[in-house]
């Protein structure tokens, strides 16, 4: 059976005023959690108005073409201008959204100019007409992005900058070929979200590819090494000794057969105070690199994880293998969470939900007697009323937002696949994920670095290019740049081949800090600015969608606690005019 796939769709919405003005729910923001709620509430017959102040879907879960990435970078570096006082009911989404991302860096690379081009450049500089050397974009409005990104251009640095400008313009002209994800995640094949996509029919709007390979960064070789993550991998992996293969197969079999009734299993006796690492060592004699691979790359936990936490995660992994392919994860095409969010938005629209994108909002309307939010007013003065409000964090007054944690992210686009040390034997598949355990050469002493590698098969980039996403909760904000440098190093290989002499070339790098606010964990210490509001969390640092989907289901039950089924099985679909 293949991944749940029934074509790709692009739900479009207008920014015109709706004739309807009164709704059961108003949903602000098209992030993943907000969109799941909008779709599920419309599905059970509720009247939903779904608004977003941006023209694209996703909110803090956004996916960008190169043009949108440049715009996002420029807007994030404008600086803060708003001053919002406590108790103010105004909505300044742009200010809040901009403050959610910090230290955004975008760099485009290229090779040196050919000699003839260099001569032309020098001649133009001498004549004072160097700006005529700047290539033109296909779309006139994109020329403003070129001017803004290269605002420091002078006759003194034009020779150095011109190759970069040419690449920049070429990327703008091919912007639609890129889907670059600010919150990359993978979908476990046994996650509840997968079951919901299949049962409810939402999956008809999505496409997926199976993620077959896992890599871990090895300290000794300073390179990615393949993790034996399936029975096939165990038998073919030559970096694992025969004795270790037997230990691994014994453990994976144990994890596969694990169930809730195994509390009396002798291997689990007296393990309450034991860490997962200790359990692997004492019960299965698994140590060293193999233990590190199981803990960080398969279970996706850390050295502090309990036995139960580690075994539960490993059990989910081995149960997920082989459902839609060799691997345990699926990669959504055309972008991750943003694409899934858009699929739920489409369901909402099919069941009567109204969408207005690119809609600036002015303020909330609150009943002074009850303290409840009764609606919102747009910048044009249009009022929409609701019985209950659902919102992403960035639509709330900045002074009322909870304290934020954060993580750093990186996007790397290259013209060469970032291969493992034994490139010929363990050539990475186009879709894979990797982990830098704490203590790696990248300097991440406190937290792991996670990575997802994609290419044109996931519609992330042009054919012949590769996209690597990296992110970490490490407090050291320099570790991702070090990790990129490590990945870009030329590695010695075990085979001779002319391709081994090819250097890796960076095309694009993006670095950014992103704040993470979890509404559920802050309920005890944070009071929402008004009653009858449901607040949705930001994306977290996890590899998968489990926590986001669990929150969406919980909030649905909070909104509709009686006789309402969350995303019931697909029925005869209403007529869809798109």
UniProtKB/TrEMBL annotation:
Residues 410-540 form the RAE1/2 domain. GO terms for molecular function: GDP-dissociation inhibitor activity; GTPase activator activity; transferase activity. This is Rab escort protein 1. Substrate-binding subunit of the Rab geranylgeranyltransferase (GGTase) complex. Binds unprenylated Rab proteins. Pfam families: GDI (PF00996), RAE1_2_domI_C (PF22603). Keywords: Cytoplasm, GTPase activation, Transferase. Belongs to the Rab GDI family. One of its GO terms (biological process) is intracellular protein transport. GO terms for cellular component: cytosol; nucleus; Rab-protein geranylgeranyltransferase complex. Its main location: cytoplasm. The keyword Endoplasmic reticulum does not apply. It is found in: Cytoplasm, Cytosol. It comes from Mucor ambiguus. InterPro entries: FAD/NAD-bd_sf, GDP_dissociation_inhibitor, Rab_escort, RAE1_2_domI_C.
């Amino acid at each position: 059976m293949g991944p749940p796939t029934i074509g790709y769709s692009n739900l479009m919405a207008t920014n015109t005023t709706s004739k309807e003005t009164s709704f059961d729910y108003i949903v602000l923001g098209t992030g993943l959690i907000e969109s799941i709620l909008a779709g599920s509430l419309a599905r059970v017959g509720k009247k939903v108005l779904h608004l977003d102040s941006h023209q694209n879907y996703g909110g803090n879960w956004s996916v960008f073409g190169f043009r949108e990435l440049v715009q996002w970078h420029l807007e994030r570096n404008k600086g803060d201008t708003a001053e919002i006082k406590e108790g103010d009911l105004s909505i300044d989404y742009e200010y809040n959204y901009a403050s959610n991302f910090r230290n955004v860096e975008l760099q485009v690379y290229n090779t040196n100019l050919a000699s003839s081009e260099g001569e032309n450049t020098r001649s133009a500089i001498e004549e004072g007409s160097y700006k005529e050397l700047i290539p033109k974009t296909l779309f006139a409005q994109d020329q403003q992005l070129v001017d803004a990104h290269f605002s420091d251009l002078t006759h003194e640095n034009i020779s150095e900058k011109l190759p970069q400008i040419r690449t920049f313009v070429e990327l703008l002209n091919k912007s639609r070929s890129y889907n670059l994800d600010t919150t990359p995640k993978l979908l476990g094949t046994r996650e509840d979200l997968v079951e919901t996509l299949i049962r409810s029919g939402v999956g008809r709007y999505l496409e997926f590819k199976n993620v077959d390979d896992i890599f871990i960064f090895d300290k000794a070789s300073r390179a990615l090494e393949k993790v034996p993550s399936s029975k096939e991998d165990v038998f073919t992996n030559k970096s694992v000794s025969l004795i270790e293969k037997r230990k691994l197969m014994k453990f994976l079999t144990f994890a596969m057969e694990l169930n809730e009734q195994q509390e009396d299993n002798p291997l689990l006796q007296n393990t309450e105070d034991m860490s997962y690492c200790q359990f692997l060592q004492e019960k299965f004699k698994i140590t060293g690199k193999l233990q590190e691979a199981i803990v960080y790359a398969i279970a996706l936990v850390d050295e502090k994880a309990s036995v139960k936490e580690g075994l539960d995660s490993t059990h989910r992994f081995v149960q997920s293998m082989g459902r839609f392919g060799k691997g345990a994860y699926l990669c959504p095409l055309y972008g991750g969470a943003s694409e899934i969010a858009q699929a739920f938005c489409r369901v909402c629209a099919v069941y009567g939900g109204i969408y207005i994108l690119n809609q600036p909002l002015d303020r909330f309307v609150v009943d002074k007697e009850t303290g409840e939010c009764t609606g919102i007013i747009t910048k044009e003065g249009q009022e929409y009323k609701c019985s209950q409000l659902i919102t992403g964090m960035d639509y709330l007054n900045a002074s009322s937002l909870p304290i934020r944690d954060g993580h750093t992210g990186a996007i790397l686009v290259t013209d060469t696949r970032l291969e493992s040390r034994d490139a010929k034997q363990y050539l990475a598949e186009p879709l894979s994920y990797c982990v830098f355990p704490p203590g790696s050469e990248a300097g991440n002493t406190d937290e792991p670095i996670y990575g997802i590698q994609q290419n044109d098969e996931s519609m992330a980039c042009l054919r012949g290019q590769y996209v690597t996403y990296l992110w970490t909760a490490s407090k050291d904000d320099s570790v991702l740049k070090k990790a990129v440098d490590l990945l870009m190093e030329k590695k010695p290989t075990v085979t001779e081949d002319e391709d081994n002499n090819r250097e890796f070339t960076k095309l694009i790098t993006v670095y950014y800090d992103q704040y993470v606010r979890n509404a559920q964990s802050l309920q005890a210490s944070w009071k929402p600015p008004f009653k009858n509001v449901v607040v949705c969390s930001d994306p977290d640092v996890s590899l998968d969608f489990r926590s986001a989907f669990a929150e969406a289901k919980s909030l649905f039950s909070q909104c509709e606690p009686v006789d309402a089924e969350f995303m019931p099985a697909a029925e005869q679909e209403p007529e869809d005019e798109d």
